[in-house]
Amino acid sequence: MLVRLLSAPGLRRIALRAVVATLQMPETFVQPNWIHITHITFTSETDDRYFLALLRQCPNLVVGKFQVVTSSRDRESEDSSGGSDKPDEEEVLLPRLESLAIDDFCTSQKMTATLNAIKAPALTRLSYQIFSDVDDPEPDAYFTPLPMPVLPLLENSTLIRDLSLGGSLSSKDVYKCFQPGAQITRIVFGKPLPANAPPIKPPLKPSDVVDLRILSGASHPVIPLPRLEFLEAHQLSRLTDEDLLEIITSRIEAFKRGETVALKSIKISFLRQIQNDISEEVSRLAREGGIEIKLALTYLTKQGINIKSLTQRLSPSFGLSLAQDVWSHDS
Fold this sequence. Notes:
Layout: H1 2-6, E1 13-16, E2 20-21, E3 39-47, H2 48-56, E4 63-69, H3 72-81, E5 92-93, E6 99-105, H4 108-117, E7 118-119, E8 125-130, H5 151-156, E9 162-167, H6 171-178, E10 186-189, E11 230-236, H7 241-256, E12 265-270, H8 279-288, E13 294-300, E14 306-308, H9 310-313
Parallel strand pairs: 1-3, 2-3, 3-4, 4-6, 5-7, 6-8, 8-9, 9-10, 10-11, 11-12, 12-13
Antiparallel strand pairs: 13-14
Helix pairs in contact: 7-8
């Protein structure tokens, strides 16, 4: 039955889950008519040897979600010779692609070449989660990681307004991601804990996906992301409540000077207990700036259970979506 469905001439959307999604399917397995496919969701691993080859067959792709892994052949090659096959660098033109989500489990060099090959001039929504063995996103003096592989894609796609980043990220690389991002109106760092996650204790070694202070005007002569309206970050532990207040204050002052648009929504979840309730001060600053900021902060209790702060519970929008048109990596 599945074979017949995949060969249906009107098929436009595909969601597959397998051990590894590749183009090397059994001879008895009917291939979809990829040229007509507009939406692809692979919730299983996609071999990096086939990723670009698959995209080349989908010129009408509008939405794509993938988990890209280093092929077993390349892993064996790296183990035996210290290197891997030359990355596929042939250009892939996806003129209709609007939304792309990638979970990256590949080597940096190969994924950099892969993402550089993708030309998506209409791309407006990008989720990129990088997974590596680096515990601390800020490297020490003895370790200098390669630049984030997603940088070439960001440079090639200048219309992105919704950006989600996660994994081991350095502030330097994240700031580079902002350089071509003058259009970005929504930024998300990390992923929220699953709703059914068991109670957790604050980590012994605090680690944030990124240092949010790079969004402050105090960090750079020109404030990053001047069109930013929605800020979201998850599982933070290093950022203090005072740091967050300074970031918000800096953005409000920049708005009053005409350097940025006004922040509309801030949603932060912490893997620590509350230090200071900044809600009243944020309300005062926003009111003086002539704007309204919806603030949703989540902390841990002493028992390690996630709780919503009063900031969100007292909001007139509590329980409602912060924006109807925002995009999430889970959507």
